[in-house]
From TrEMBL:
Keyword rRNA-binding: no
Transmembrane portions of the chain: 29-47, 52-70
SMART domains: AAA
Keywords assigned: ATP-binding, Membrane, Nucleotide-binding, Transmembrane, Transmembrane helix
Protein's UniProt name: FtsK domain-containing protein
Pfam families from the UniProt entry: FtsK_SpoIIIE (PF01580)
Binding site for ATP: 381-388
One GO molecular-function entry: DNA binding
PANTHER family: SPORULATION PROTEIN RELATED, TYPE VII SECRETION SYSTEM PROTEIN ESSC
SUPFAM superfamilies on file: P-loop containing nucleoside triphosphate hydrolases
Keyword Isomerase: no
Organism encoding this protein: Agromyces aureus
Domain FtsK residue range list: 363-548
Amino acid sequence: MPTRLFAPPDGTRLPLTLPAVVPEPTPTGFPFLAALAPVVGAVVLWLVTHSVISLAFAVLGPVLAVATVLDGRRQVRRSVRRANEERIAAFARLRADVGVRHEEEAETAWLRHPSAGRLSTGVEPPEWRADGLAPVVLGAAAIESALRIEGVPADEFDREALDHARRLEGAPVVVDLAGGIGFVGPTPLVRAAARALLVQCAHLVRPDALAFDAPDAEPWAWVARLPHAGSAAMLVLRDLTLPSVLEPASGEAESRSAHAIVLAPAVERLPPGLAIVVRIDGPRTATLLQHGAVVGTALAPDLLGAEQADAWAVRAAATAERAGLGTRSSRLPQVVRLHDLAHPGAVDRRRSTLRAGVGLRAGGVLDLDLVADGPHAIVAGTTGSGKSEFLLAWILQMAAVHPPERVAFLLVDFKGGSAFEPILGLPHVAGLVTDLDESEAERAVQSLSAELRHRERALRDAGVRDIGDLPDDAPLGRLVVVIDEFQAMIQRFRDLGTVVADIAARGRSLGVHLVLASQRPNGVLGEQVTANAPIRVSLRVMSRADSVAVVGSDAAAAIPADRPGRGVVDRGDGVPVPFQCALVDAGSVDGVRARFAAAPPVRRPWLDPLPTRLTAADLEVARAAATAAAAPATAAAGVPVRPAGRVADDLSTVVFGLVDEPEQQRRSLAGWTPTADANLLVLGSPGSGRSTTLAAIEAGVRTRWGVGAVLRLGRGAPDDWQLLADLVASVRSGSSSQRLLVVDDLDTRFSSWPEEYRHAATAMLVELLTEGRRLGLAVAAGASIGHRLGGGMRELFGELVHLRHPSRAELAHAGGVGDLWQRDATPGSGQWRAHRLQVVDVPPLRATPAEKPPPAIVFDADIVAVVSSAAQRDLGLLLATGRTPIRLTPGGEREVLAELGREQLVVVGDADAWASSYALAARARDAATVVVRGGLREFRALAPASAGCTGPIALPPLLGGGECWVVRPGEAARRHRWATTENAAYHVAGH
């Protein structure tokens, strides 16, 4: 029996079932009780009323019973009729569903076993998946379907539906060639059927596994063009319709019948022993016989014309030549040198090609062209397979023919950079990026997006859509980006996969080509990349799946480990071709370098990283480039520089460094505009360059606004306190002027201050940050740890400069970009507005020395009240002045009051003594000069309530070491230097 094919059942569909059979109606019985009840009721009514009319009700019972029976039978007949109609409609729907599934089943079968007519169109390349004779299609016929309908047949309708489901019309009839096949009938038809079988066999079986033995006659000359010359199997064709061919002897026929196709005009001419015989009666009619018995229904034979068969043989031979299959192909050498390939000819300055020979294939040199075959390529190969040698050979061969102004190479090696070391001296090489410097690798790949935009602008300005259409004098050449170990790069920088996908999508017309190499590209490259990379190269890989994923064949997995450089390439035509790549030697590299020694350097697609130290002279060069008339301006080093600030010509912008913008292929001046931007906070670890950054900003403000416009904390706690108080008072009064307040070490600036002063200073600074902007007061501060400032103050700084942080996590927590973190960042290196920054290295400005308070305390009042935390010690210092102070103790108020008549009275006591002396304290507050030595406890024990308000804050001035407060009647507290034993000089008024 011929092999029957069917589509696999679709598990997602509901099974087909037979419609339910309409059951026989149940007979309706006669309602005797319903008929008798009215009769009994009428008799009872007559006995009661003696009315004859009541007997008439007795007739209603039988009449209603008969009517009920008749109506029930009518309802049953109608229900049965509706059920039958619904069942017929269900059969119609079932037949339609069966038809749809039969079409899908037949289509699936034809896809698995295509006819020779479909193969001759050239749409499907040879599969060559079988190593021996494979089943072939004889034609189309009605066969048994795999489709089944659930249910037990009950009538002819059910049996007809089941028969229809089991019969699949127009399905391929597939047979095995093992027992031999004979064709009988008109000569043109049997030859057409035999051609169809031969083409099918040649389509399925590898050329190195099958050979054909056909008559040496003109009708079969096309068979000699087939590439099949294997020794594993032989298919013998005997055409007994030829006039000069005699019938073979019985022994010969039996020996050849196992793999034979015999053509004869009649069945009697066929040799015995053929398993299958096809009797062809017409182009669409044939009969299939198996061992002499008729099998199945009429067969529509698969026929193929002579011209179609000849054209298919020519295409198959060309495909086999490219693939290096069959014993007719030459063996590949184990080692290929570059001098074994064709010597590079004249320099090719065309933009329409990048053709280069990379190795040897069966029959000649293997040429690859990223322009014609590309635009991109994928290369696979395990360790030791020769993947790096292949990349070197490809790059060197392209460089040998095409000048640097027509092609440049950006090399990315995530194996340390050693893979491309032999060719780094070529003038075509724009640069090498390795995994040894992660930031540089990320910058280089990000710059490629800017390179695409640059090329788009160049094509737009030239009025063309493709780089190949540019005029010869245009400076734009092709750029080939070669990434070795692409998988490692994506694992480390996952965001770069988007950049590579963008290049893969837009690179063709812009002249940017990708060569992505990895040990296992399967699953690493996205669909957008693989869809635009028709060139596939696979050297030896470890698994069949990896080989199939790259080149569509498992041949690369079968390459021996001792064959480095052996690989399989698919140039985009679906045909895997074995090859041996060439080895690069130093002489070949030197030859290419010498050939283009006079060529100018190629344009680099990315900028150099920022310098580790930016001098003031370097910054001035960049400023001059940014403010030049040409746009974009270019500095001496050829680096585009963009102006800083919100407005390019804003003279109030303070430039303090350079910003790296690799995605724009340029640098920008790092500028902060105090009049327009938010307050500035510089964050960084100790030694990261905070003070240098603030000094650069301070110097810029002094240059533009004048020296007096810059105010700085850091002259000592007393002066810092007074400065904050004065600024708050100015802000509250509404006075407006352009000023800058610089606060370094903001997170620790007030940590050593007394608690009340620390909180008050923080509140004053918050007020300045909040209200100072509208009055022209800007704040630039520095801190080592941002979260020490507290959320309220931290949020008042809208502009942040991030210098070196201890860890990536701390940088991200502080609001920086974690990907820009560098463990070994140099001082002044950081980020500004999400870009890398290098601050100009300027010496920190010298702080103005703190002003000392008056050197002596003036006793210009009748009473001098001294409140001290160390009263006994200070009493001795006062004695050294020649005065005779009175020591105030708790409860000694009367003794002191008794001395008030003296010319000048000096009373010394601690806070407790003055607090217990109410009358004396009240007298001192009104008329005495109060001297306070100690803290706020001593001050509040005696000083008048109004004495502490030296500004907007109700606290006296903050004291430094060896200082005290002096409060004269009606005045606010002032700072004075307290005398020591060595300098106990008190000036007394009138002396």
